[in-house]
Amino acid sequence: MTMDAVKLVEVGARDGLQNEAQALPVEIRVELIERLAAAGLRTLEAGAFVSPRWVPQMAGSDEVLRRLGRRPGVTYTALVPNLKGLDAALEVDCREVAVFAAASEAFSQKNINCSIDESLQRFQPVLAKAAEQGVAVRGYVSCVLGCPFSGDVPVVDVVRVARELYAMGCYEISLGDTIGRGTPGSTRRLVEACASEVPITALAGHFHDTYGMAVANVQAALEAGVRVFDSSISGLGGCPYSPGATGNVATEELVYLFQGQGVATGVDLPALLEAGAFIDKALGKASASRVATALRSRASNQ
Amino acid sequence: MTMDAVKLVEVGARDGLQNEAQALPVEIRVELIERLAAAGLRTLEAGAFVSPRWVPQMAGSDEVLRRLGRRPGVTYTALVPNLKGLDAALEVDCREVAVFAAASEAFSQKNINCSIDESLQRFQPVLAKAAEQGVAVRGYVSCVLGCPFSGDVPVVDVVRVARELYAMGCYEISLGDTIGRGTPGSTRRLVEACASEVPITALAGHFHDTYGMAVANVQAALEAGVRVFDSSISGLGGCPYSPGATGNVATEELVYLFQGQGVATGVDLPALLEAGAFIDKALGKASASRVATALRSRASNQ
Prior knowledge:
The structure is a homodimer. By secondary structure, chain A is of the alpha/beta class. Chain A has one domain (7-301): Alpha-Beta Barrel (TIM Barrel), CATH 3.20.20.70. Chain A has helices at 12-18, 26-38, 61-67, 83-91, 105-112, 116-132, 155-168, 184-195, 214-223, 251-259, 269-283, 290-300, and strands at residues 7-10, 43-48, 75-79, 96-102, 136-142, 172-177, 203-207, 228-231. In chain A, strands 1-2-3-4-5-6-7-8 form an eight-stranded parallel beta barrel, surrounded by nine helices. In chain A, strand 3, helix 4 and strand 4 form a beta-alpha-beta unit. In chain A, helix 2 packs antiparallel against helix 11 (269-283), helix 6 (116-132) packs parallel to helix 7 (155-168) and helix 7 (155-168) crosses helix 8 (184-195). Chain A is globular, with a radius of gyration of 18 Å. The model of chain A has no long low-confidence stretch (mean pLDDT 94).
């Protein structure tokens, strides 16, 4: 496998904003996504069809999807917890959706109020209808390297959920280190185990920088053959059950990491930095991206 | 080569504090170093015998060295720019000193006011007298993956300086990515090139986290065979020529990284976190360590 190129899945406008305390209006979210797409990102989470009572940050996701200008080669995706969510996504002509499972029973219960098996059963009709409608489905597996409630998560549990989601029709399985506990060794073992049951081209890495390990884990996954990575502009997001913890690895860091090794991302870093500055300002907070912080400080000293 | 163990060189009390805006009194610096040694660090930078006019943060380094309680197996080191510095170090019975060279002409001129060759010549009598006195000398090479003034630095220039310092009698050569510009690919190539001229057991990695790449670069160097790494408690320090930029990789991050892979460091993480909290409070600033931030937030939520 060549290391020529990777695909970045930008999760800032959904996974990122969903885990920020502040809910942003539709206009800001649309502008963020448009800026990120203009910077060269080709797959972008745009919203979630979940109850705004539980997730106010994602209210108006239908409106976000409706307003986004279609761009050739760009896919806007939405999280759908069930058939009702899928129907809402179909109504706004969303061509890719995602379902969210956990590798840890404790996290599944706490996060989506059902067992892992119940969640997989719930996704069956979603996958069936999506297939019927020609809509691609991505599967997320959370807690792949540890659970905030139960601690260690056996690799076999991750492999089982990844395999079932893939068998069910998910075209890509995103392996999420929800609490950022992994290190390069455990990341490598995880990828190797999952790749024994799911084609490695169907695996994606989703790392959190809670302990500063995300970039090293992405590199380990890259070297193990993974070519799809989730990241979040300005490092938006986090885990709602780990207050104070940093969240998703910043898209800026991954673009810098890959550029430095000649691995193409298709992303224009200066345009990406501007998108980051835009959302930092909207949220009124400092960037969690070290690349953004360093390059802005350099620019302001020139 | 086994991946059983690494040696960490704690640079917080010298390289770290020297690059903080605030100068701390001797008592605080002594307590910091004592706490770090108690946490299990075995080689610790304790001061620099340079002019307090230029580096007020290192004033009283003789007093620091004098006050430190000797511990079996623990080495306190000092930076010495010249023979006068070495004499001052000898006076307080310092058993290991370090000299500081650059791989970039522009940086050498700006930082130590002389060419690379002039700096190497200046170190000759230092190395000779240190050998005579049975004092170990470590050599630093800065700008190994880029220079803040001249940009790219050819690997051959790094190899030359590393080789000359080693030939001159430095027992260990610390390769410093002063501006944190490296990525795992360039780090690996650098280590391989240097290891072709200097035994890899005599090479150390010194990474800055300016662009969030330090942990990934340490991992790349580890996989390339390096077993000695410099780090700074709480991520203290930075580069005086890159304002706003984060500095040295945090010791907490490296301990977490290595622990996660079963690589022994000899360091007790809870004790290390306490040493970090101590110096954060003394400086009145937040930790730059993500491990420290995450673990403290977890502890305060329990």
